[in-house]
């Protein structure tokens, strides 16, 4: 392309300045918005009639060149070099030349993992099998299989995260109840630990991501007393002391009757100066006949119970932790004092 700016000294000088600026610019697009270029374009109408056409063509040629140079520079900036995922641990690099790593002795197990292992150990010794929950599920297992009617307001209580495809981040480990009962024949004794998600307003007692452990027991002749004794046995083994409890009625679509389970705060777990306290730590109840039927079990023959308790809540009680948000914070000072084992 012939450089037409040579016939106009001012245009030639400004062209050189803009191209130099473009070569050094972090944001090349700003050159196209520069005052100098705008002045050149505005000056077209002020040129003598005999030179106006040639001058206008030269200015537009400059603008086209600058636009092309800007596009090339922006494209080059977006072409990042590939990352070698083996570096600096390529098989051809000797161990002496690889960077030193922190020793394994410097780390610790996260307190949730440590306590979850203890919880699973207790239930295993009580005769329960362990089945892991899921990190993503569907509407049927979250609601339909658990006796939630379509458009029932109880669905709104869970503040559920959903994908555009209709998949669900489980808001409770109860999503596994139907699967566990279909996969086993009575007697069924399974605990289901897992991570759950809710769209919560975060504060010291509410977090959007936390952990639950679900319990499912089904056999002939199972009564409410069996459930209460099972839960108390677990809690006394976990806290290593006698636990006083009480229950109060509560509605859950998947159990009938539904209960909230409260424990009397042991003196060893109370804050100094606090009086007698009752704390609700889980929901529980006898499995609803419709839930049994949905899993292929005859409610005229079998009965059962289920519960769901928050793992972080148990850990907070056990270790006097004041804020549930600490568990997701990654703070080393908290992780060192919160009960994690090396």
Number of strands: 9
Helix percent band:
25-40%
Number of separate domains: 2
For the sheet with most strands, the description reads:
7 strands, mixed
Structural class: alpha+beta
Q: Termini, distance in Å?
A: 71 Å
Summarize the structure.
With 342 residues, this protein is of the alpha+beta class. The protein has helices at 9-24, 35-42, 49-78, 111-125, 139-142, 177-183, 224-239, 289-294, 311-319, 332-337; strands at 129-130, 161-162, 168-169, 188-197, 209-219, 245-249, 255-264, 278-287, 303-310.
3D structure, described in words:
The protein has 342 residues and is an alpha+beta fold. The chain folds into 2 domains: 10-78, no CATH class; 111-337, Bira Bifunctional Protein, Domain 2 (BirA Bifunctional Protein, domain 2). The protein contains 10 helices and 9 strands. The strands form 2 sheets. The protein has a 7-stranded mixed beta sheet, with helices on both faces. It has a two-stranded antiparallel sheet with strand order 2-3. The model has no long low-confidence stretch (mean pLDDT 85).
What layout of secondary structure does this protein have?
Layout lengths: L8 H16 L10 H8 L6 H30 L32 H15 L3 E2 L8 H4 L18 E2 L5 E2 L7 H7 L4 E10 L11 E11 L4 H16 L5 E5 L5 E10 L13 E10 L1 H6 L8 E8 H9 L12 H6 L5
Parallel strand pairs: 1-4
Antiparallel strand pairs: 2-3, 4-5, 5-9, 6-7, 7-8, 8-9
Structure characteristics:
two-stranded antiparallel ribbon; 342 residues; alpha+beta; BirA Bifunctional Protein, domain 2; elongated; 2 domains; 9 strands; 10 helices; seven-stranded mixed beta sheet
